[in-house]
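Open question from group meeting: does this chain pack into something compact, or does most of it stay loose? Before anyone orders reagents, we agreed to write out a predicted structure and look at it together. Recording both the input and the output here so the notebook holds the full record.
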Amino acid sequence: MNIALITYLDKGAYDSTTVESEDDKLLVFLREKGLTIEKVIWNDPAVNWADYTLAILKSPWDYFDLIEDFYAWLNQLESKNIRLLNPIDVVKWNSNKQYLQEIEAAGLKITPSVFVNKQQSIDLNHFFQQFNTSKLIVKPCVSGGAKNTFKVTADNVAEVNEKLNQLIQEEDFIVQPFLPEILENGEWSFIFFNGVYSHSLVKQAKPGDFRVQPAHGGSVHPQKPDQALIETAQQYINLFAKDCLYARVDGTFVNGEFLLMELELIEPFLFLNTDPQNYERYFKALQELM
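C-alpha cells returned:
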C-alpha cells in the first residue's frame, strides 16, 4: 500500500519550522514501521493520485487560502476512491468554523459565538454589550494561523470595523468575546488518535500577545489531566470525530467549565515530541484504520 502524507507547498507565508520537523520525524518513524509512505503536496499538479491507496492529511497549512481548490482536490480523491484520513466528509465539515453551531446544538459547550454572513454590514460596538465584555476576537469562518484575526477594544473598534466591512464582502466571519482565561491559564489541547485519548498540553501566549501558536511565540506545557477532564474532551470526539486518525480538542476553562474553541481535524500540530509514546499511539491508530 502506497501512502501519501499530505503537506503543502511552503512559500514562506507561514512559520512552519516546528510543523515540518514533526512531519519529518513522523515520516521516518512510519517508514521504520515498514510503511511505504512519502510526503506529497496536496495541490501539486504533477502528482498522479492513482499511485496512492491511502492519504493522511497531515499539514495542508494553506488550505484556507485556497479553499475552493482544496474542496476540488477532496472531490478528486473521492472520485478516484482514494481513502483520506481524516475522512473527506469530516474534513469538509471542519473546514468552516460554522461547525461550532452544530456542536453547540448537540448540547456541548463552545466559546460564545456570533456568525456574520458575508456581504452584511457590521458594527462591532454592538457585540461589546451583547457579550458583556471589553474585548472581542474576530476571525474568518474559513481560516487558520491567526489570519485576518483581530483583537478588538474600544480603542481600535473604528479601525477594525472599517477593515472588517471590506473583508466581509468576500467571506463569513465569527465574533467571540476575548476570554482572559486564555492569558491567565492558557489554552488546553487534548489529542486523540482514532477516538482514544493520547496526550494533552497547555499553550500559553508570550507576554503582550494573545496568540498561543508556537509560530507567534507561544509556549507549550505538557499536562496530565484527571479522568474527568479527559472525559469532557472525549464527548466532542465521540460525536464529531468518528473514524478520525487524529483529532485535537482546543479550549479553555471559564468558571470551571470547559469551553471549546476549535475542534482541529485538518492540519493541527499534534505535539508528538512531548512523549515518545505518542508516535506509537499514532501508529496503532493508523493500523486500526488501514
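Observations to bring back to the group:
The longest strand covers residues 196-204.
The longest helix spans residues 17-32.
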